[in-house]
Amino acid sequence: MIIFDDPERFAQLEQNCVATIGKFDGVHLGHQLILDQLKRKAEDLEIPSLVILLEPHPEEFFAGESGNCPARLTVFREKLELLESFGIDYVFELKFDETL
């Protein structure tokens, strides 16, 4: 699995892919269904699969200094390990900040 965190480097990826976007915290059964469908569609089309992760969680960003947001179920590294176990080809870490 290849991980991108630089938008310019990610933009240089000149190939089609099947993508989904989200937080994927905990990678629960609903997430697993999405990832299975993503992987299956990518295999059918013979193109890579891509998960775009929002980091930090939007709730964390908007909570600011108050810290008044739900606790994470998985830390970022665990999330990447779970996505890799699903056979995801690419992950793009999209920085959720004021410029987004």
Automatic annotation (TrEMBL):
Its EC number is 2.7.7.2. Transmembrane segments: none annotated. Keywords: ATP-binding, FAD, Flavoprotein, FMN, Nucleotide-binding, Nucleotidyltransferase, Transferase. GO terms for biological process: FAD biosynthetic process; riboflavin biosynthetic process. GO terms for molecular function: ATP binding; FMN adenylyltransferase activity. Gene3D superfamilies: HUPs. Residues 13-99 form the FAD synthetase domain. It comes from the Eukaryota. InterPro entries: Cyt_trans-like, FAD_synthase, Rossmann-like_a/b/a_fold. Pathway: Cofactor biosynthesis; FAD biosynthesis; FAD from FMN: step 1/1. This is FAD synthase. It comes from Ditylum brightwellii. The lineage of its organism: Eukaryota, Sar, Stramenopiles, Ochrophyta, Bacillariophyta.
